[in-house]
Amino acid sequence: MVSPRPYWLLLVALLVACFGTAARLSPQFEGWRGSRATGDFFVVLLGDERKMFANTFYIKADEYYHSGYYPSIFDDNAAFRTAHMAEDTGAVDSKNHGDEHGFLGPERNWIDSFGRHFFPNRHTHLDEGGPGGDLGGSQEVREILPWLKLSADLDPENVQTYTVTAFWLRERMQNVKAADVMLHEGIRHCPDSYEIFFELGRLYYDSYQDHTRARNVWEHGVELWLRLDPATPRGRQPALELVDDWLSRPLKLVAEQKDNQLVMEQLTTHLAAMDTADGHWTRAIEWLRAGERVSLTPDRIQARIDELNSKLDQELHPLLKPLY
Amino acid sequence: MSIILKTEKLRVEYRSREIRQGTKVALHGLDLEVGTGEVFGFLGPNGAGKTTTMNVLLGFVPPTSGSAYLFGIDVRQPIARQRIGYLPELTYYYKFLNAEELLRFYAKIFGLPRAVADRRIAELLKLVELESAARRPIKSYSKGMQQRVGLAQALINDPDLLVLDEPTSGLDPLGRMKVREIIQRLKNEGKTVFFSSHELGEVESVCDRVAIIHQGQLKAIGRVAEITGTHANLEKAFLEIVGYQKEPAS
Amino acid sequence: MRNTIAVAGIVIKELYRRKDFYVLFIVTILICLVMASINIYNDANVVRYIKEVCLDLIWVCTLVVAVTTTARQIPAERENRTLLPLLAKPLTRVELILGKFLGCWLACGLALLCFYLFFGALAASREHHWFLTNYLQAGVMQWFMLGMVVALSLLGSLVFAAPSSNATICFVIIGGILFVGRHLDQEALQLAEPLRGLVLCLYFVLPHLEFYDLRDLVVQNWPPVAWEYIGLALLYAVFYQFIFLIGACLVFRRKAVN
Questions:
Q1: What residues contact residue C23 under an 8 Å CB cut-off, 6+ apart?
Q2: Cα–Cα distance list, B93 to A6, B88, B139 (Å)
Q3: Touching B: which chains, 3+ CB pairs < 8 A?
Q4: What does the radius of gyration of chain A's CA atoms come to, in whole angstroms?
Q5: What CA–CA distance (Å, rounded) separates C39 from C21?
Q6: Under a CB-based contact definition with an 8 Å cutoff, are residues B187 and B134 in contact?
Q7: Which of B80, C31, C108, C224 could form a disulfide with B73 if both were Cys (CB 3.0 to 4.6 A apart)?
Q8: Residue C6 and residue B55: Cβ atoms within 8 Å?
Q9: Which chains touch A (3 or more CB pairs under 8 A)?
Q10: What is the pLDDT along chain C (258 residues), one digit of tens a residue?
Q11: CB C180 to CB A74 under 8 A?
């Protein structure tokens, strides 16, 4: 009978050779472009397909926001192009039109009619209590958070995931710390995102009552939005100077600015409100003029500008103050 | 002696899988009678029609023409099978059951009351020497044990007619002896046994009458001694009846 | 009836003695417990995603149990030659088919009961509330849906030679009905004749298994469905079970068993 000892020794020698080779080549592996040695788990597992999954889970979160009443790919989804959970944060341009309550359309036959009794068949929002209809500031909206968390993990470059998650964490769940962490993580992955800076400013302003930090991040958001246009001067000018420069030029928005006018309006109007409260009416008027340029309701902003102008005139010309 | 099993001009045709071959005739008008209390051997080479005959008798296959009766009842009626037991060739019983559960299942189908079934199961397990293995799953049984449990299930309803298809197939000599003893015992109890086998020595020692079938046709039927005739044994008679011709030495 | 119940009893024994169900059950429990352990912004009351994952797993597992258990019944009997001693007893082929159906269906019911008990416990641990009516409706509807699946699979096992091909075809049909069955009529309108007519025919003829999927209602805590609609849906299921079983009996009557 042949002794197994030489085979064991050969096996050990092979193992040593394998480990030694791997250890020797490891630095070269890490330096390779496209190396997955230090990649994120999802990047390694899924590659770029993770973004497809991220989008699916983002839509899933909006489906949960509607308690399951949501159009499939076969239904009319014109009223759901922009997620309602994002729309309701007040900081996302909406591309929705059509009937959100009746995307199923009229009943087509007895099977369709009968089948509608077995799935959600009414339009509701979780922040309003969902099917239960409890309007008392329901916290049911927590149920969208797992899907948003998963979506953010899979696609860290999707800005809306951070802003939407942070909004609901802060606004409805009173979990300000988590919202703060979420937004800072968003800034880490998307450092040029004005949407995230706007939301961060709201957090500082509403939850921490830290107006100074709120102003700083909102002004930075305005800068980022303006710098989308290559014509905006480069350099370290303050945001209001950039706004002045922008206002002096004819209105010409680049594509991304056109798609995100609402955020700019929100940034400028919030800054205007802060300056109004502080009595800096000239600054407030500048912000409002910038906001008016991109607003879908410029008349409303113009009315506020007129009001501020009138106050400014009264301050400059005290005799113009009304006597009564 | 009453007739317990009868076929009249039994003809079975199959549609052949080969398109050009049309239909294949498995049985050509078989006439057969088996009386009460007989041990009847049904012999023939492979493909002669033995299994087809059994399939018709047990209701598995409808005849193309002719008829078959068990206890005077047409075989197509399920009630005809109330008093028979059947042991098929090479059956692997439900692996997840043990012998006791298997017998209880078949007892339920026969509608045996619980007490009667319990008694019968105990007797049969003793008869086939599976008492110690009764609670073990059948998947752990050897081939011989599987055959013995098959025999037990065939006897669960204390049948008047036992139909056995190659009962000693795959058994060792001890197993074959045990099966012969059981057949003899059943005969002594007045039961009728109808079985097919290739073990002509066994058939010779156990059977009262035999029938030899070849290419779907009944070639010979009668008492063993009549069939054997002037030949040395049943095997030689069988070979002549089926027309076997020895290869000339080269 | 006695014979049918005897055959059904054997099928149920087979379910709890084979390992398939236990493996699926344990996998479901593990996945759900892992999902439940994820920290969602320190909020311990988030529950719907766990409910959805659990119910999705229940659906997948019970469909697998239903189709694979049923698909192998008759072929296994034929392969092991246990069909012969069975039909040699005073048992008709119809009784055998009904017994197999009843056994597989009851086995699915037992599996469902175990899964739903776990689901209820998991959901209640977070919600601190049992939506008993919802769970009951969802469980019963799913059970009757599985009845249709079992009957279809049984018919398939008599038509197709191999259990694997039968199971594959059943899964494809069931998956297709669940995902697009509701929308076939809409899709038909986009097609030209004669395909349009064919698809519309399919829409009206196919059993609409999606009626029995109450997951969204359970997960999102909608009020229970009105019982009259549940009753009608169950009748619809029984009707299709009948159709498939009659088909199976007719096919089996003419089938050689050896």
A1: none
A2: 49, 11, 8
A3: C
A4: 27
A5: 30
A6: no
A7: B80
A8: no
A9: C
A10: 899 999 999 999 998 888 889 999 999 999 999 999 988 888 888 999 999 999 999 999 999 999 999 999 999 998 888 898 898 888 889 999 999 999 999 999 999 999 999 999 999 998 888 899 999 999 999 999 999 999 999 999 999 989 999 999 999 999 999 999 999 999 898 899 899 999 999 999 999 999 999 999 999 999 999 999 999 999 999 999 999 999 999 999 878 776
A11: yes
The angle, 0 to 180 degrees and rounded to 10, between the axes of the packed helices A298-316 and A261-278 is 20
B82 chain-C contacts, CB cut-off 8 A? 90
Q: How far apart are CA C129 and CA A41, in angstroms?
A: 36
Q: How far is it, in rounded angstroms, from Cα A50 to Cα A164?
A: 20
Decide: B and A in contact? Rule: 3+ Cβ pairs under 8 Å: no
Closest CA–CA distance from residue B101 to any residue of chain C (Å) = 9
CB A246 within 8 A of CB A290: yes
C-alpha span between B153 and B130 (Å, rounded): 12
Report residue A241 as tokens.
């100077």
pLDDT value at A321 more than 60: no
Structure tokens at C46: 């988030």
Paired tokens of A12: 């050990």
Q: Do A169 and C41 touch (CB under 8 A)?
A: yes
Distance from CA of B250 to the nearest CA of C (A): 42
Among B52, B86, B87, B140, which would you mutate to test the C interface (most chain C Cβ atoms within 10 Å of its Cβ)? B86
Structure tokens at C77: 């009997």
Mutation target among A128, A143, A172 for the C interface, most CBs of C within 10 A: A143
The larger pLDDT score, comparing residue A92 to residue C21, is at C21
CA distance A140 to chain C (A): 9
Are A75 and A147 in contact by the 8 Å Cβ rule? The answer is no
pTM above 0.90, yes or no: no
What single string gives the DSSP state of each residue in chain B?
--EEEEEEEEEEEEE-SSGGG-EEEEEEEEEEEEETT-EEEEE--TTSSHHHHHHHHTTSS--SEEEEEETTEETTSGGGGTTEEEE-SS----TTSBHHHHHHHHHHHTT--HHHHHHHHHHHHHHTT-STTTTSBGGG--HHHHHHHHHHHHTTT--SEEEEESTTTT--HHHHHHHHHHHHHHHHTT-EEEEE-S-HHHHHHH-SEEEEEETTEEEEEEEHHHHHTTSSSHHHHHHHHTT--PPPP-
Mutate to test the interface with B, among C18, C22, C73, C89 (most CBs of B within 10 A): C89
pLDDT of A76: 83
Q: Which two tokens stand for residue A34?
A: 């496209």
Distance from CA of A130 to the nearest CA of C (A): 8
One-letter amino acid at C8 equals: A
Domain boundaries, chain A: 41-97+118-191, 209-319
Contact state of A115 with C182 under an 8 Å Cβ cutoff: yes
